[in-house]
Predict the structure.
Amino acid sequence: MQKAFVKKDPPWVDLPSIDTPIIAAELNRIEDGVDTIDSRVVTMDTTKANQVDLLECFKAITFDTATGTFTFTRWDGTTVPINTDIEKIAVNFDYDDDPTSAHYQNLVLTLSDGTVKYVDLSALITEFEFTDSATIGFTVSSSGEVTAIVKNGSITAEKLQPNYLADVTAQANAAAASATAAAGSVLDSEAWANGTRNGTDVPSTDPAYHNNAKWWKDKAQEIASGSIGGLSDVTIDNPQQGQDLEYNATSQEWENSDGTKKRILNLVNKTTTFNSDGTISITGPDYTELITFNANGSITDAVTMNGKVTTKTTSFAGNVITQTIVETNA
């Protein structure tokens, strides 16, 4: 055991010298040494042998060859003699192998005084017994070999190494959290697609209310299938290049607001097709349009007319509707 405290070097000196100031580092060093010594004293006190028990221990053993007696002397001076009768054992001895004998499989010792002693060999062999537990089972072969096996399904959580169990628990918790998040995503996907959660219509406070793919598909179908009969002249503000257009219900043509005729679209001769992939196609003279309902809830409307392609993307975030328009020459 190493020393727990080393004296200060150089040693302490009195005032007026200030070469050895009493500072925190020195006081902590002294306290650390005292604390270590104190811990050793406590450990020694709890582990030392009890004096009463030590007095019962033997301090010396003597053997008398003439009588065959061992004498054990305790620390308190008392003795314990044990007579082994070794001095009476004869050189010759025998083994009883007669199964009908009362001393079958015993050593037969004939002493010098003519008496006979029998020694059961089983007394010289330590007997072990293997018993199964809930976790471990034992088998013994015909040659006496003992095999231990771990029973299937017997390893429980408390038998696992702590770090491994912690890793398994953490992964299980992460999997549960992922499953919960996935279930929420499924409901969100259903809401953005159909406006329902678990088959029930979402409330008006839900962001997916009237802002889902089905609602906009139905609305587009309603608009595309609707009749324009009886429409009066209509003015559309801020069309392409900032020009105002008017719709002439008689001629069923769009005209420039200055009266010059410029047919943009003949709305009567149009064909609306609802495609199997969920998109809507509208075709007419010099006109094609493809309406796509995207998985993220946005709508893409691509129009090709008079050699110009206009792509308008409408996205929704809560109560905010954002439109992005891109025009290119075909």
